[in-house]
Design goal:
- The chain has helices at 9-26, 29-49, 54-70, 74-91, 97-112.
- The chain is mostly helical and 119 residues long.
- Helix 1 packs antiparallel against helix 2 (29-49), helix 2 (29-49) packs antiparallel against helix 3 and helix 3 (54-70) packs antiparallel against helix 4 (74-91).
Amino acid sequence: RYHKKQLDWMDLWDLGILIANRAYQAGRWPEFYKSREIIAEALRQLKAVEPHELILRAKVLSNLGQCYLATEEFQEASKHYSEAYSLFERTVGKRSPLFGMQAWACGNLSFAQQRFADA
């Protein structure tokens, strides 16, 4: 059998999301913050190994933004959500469900910030 010597960016992304979801639900904040680091590392690796894979980059950015939204770190959430929004707009267009999902996420962020008119 073949075993990887190390996890690739997609493995890290999957692992980070799994840990984030479980830690958030259980209120285990040190694990939750570690999961953000794992997702951020997945993003760094993705940019380095597959720089032209913009749709997956947008998905990872959106997940990372969601992690910051969950802890009410709105500036960081906005940074990641905005980049994901732009990438989805450029790659799949405004009629795509992926773009719609990101527009909804950005609306949730605006709502959480009590910027209701922007939501």
